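Please, structure for the following, as tokens.
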Amino acid sequence: MNKFFYAAVVLLLALSSCQSSKVKIAGRFVGTEAKTVYLEQSTVLEQNLIDSVTLNDEGSFSFLLESVDAKSPTLYHLVYDGNRIPLLLQGGDKVSVNSAGNALRNYTVEGSEESELLHAFNHEYVEGAVELNKIMSQLTANDLSDDQRHSLAVEYTQKKNAIKRAQLRFIVENKDRIAAVYALYQRLPGDTNLFNGDSDVIYYRTVAEALAESYPESHYLPLLRSQIARMDAQISLLSQVSESSFPEISMPDMYGKVQNLSDLEGKVILLHFWSAAIGNSNAFNADLKNIYEKYHDQGLEIYQVAVDTSKALWVNTIQQQQLPWISVCDFQGSNSPAVGAYNITALPSNFLIDRTGNIAGKDLGGEDLEKAIKKHI
């Protein structure tokens, strides 16, 4: 009898465990002609469409997820009528999402504490962005007087600052919640920084330290720690800037010898970021070789930074393409401090540095690059 009782308890615990990994999402969308709702899971690197349903005649829908992490929330989006509604879900949640009209601006959510927090942040943030767009639309009108334009510009700045202050307040007040991670990465149009560039790392570190206590197994923690390390390295690099106006880079070449960018001061430097893993590297390196052959004897140097993680691929590419200039790599890929210091967001990318150490051009190519080099040689 005891054995039977023990087996029953084990079975109930197993069933309970299975149940805790499930998530149900249900709700009703009305007020538009759209008929399909999509469910998207957002990972650190991409968004994956995992399911879709058709609204019934009353506008109702439901999703059932079978295996969702019960220890820490994960970001999902309901995609409907061109809008993406963010949800932070964990195993056991039973979530109700409803909206009339514009889904993103009018939705309500219940049944998930983190998703409700996200809604509180998102509602204020989205409404603020809509107001900014309205002001910008007025600013672009051709019939404004100088006084009107100035007044609108002041209004735009004040509104933008108010949105940012609310964003920072939400992050600090909810630093131990995954919703704060979402808020950390939201940007208004034209912004690359959260608030003030170098000081932004304080907010990332505050959230990471709090999450380590509340959600120690969250897969967002490595993302935050990587971001913090990158920002710390960028600050360190910028603090090493000499009297010249460019951040120092010190990286090993293919033979392991450290090459300092600052050692080239006094020459015209083309600082070039690329990746050996990009399929068109041979084409743009061929163009650079023509430039190098023309102007190297006149004082041009190329310092080429590879944003790669594979030493074998990088070395083989250098040898196959017979690249004659300084080629370096630290094999940290996009996490390289140099990538952060120069705010590299796309490859290839370049900076032309004149003989006095000033950056004279960015992302130049073709005739524009050659003209700029000839001007500063």
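Residues 55 and 64 are 15 Å apart (CA to CA). Residues 4-19 have pLDDT under 50 and may be disordered.
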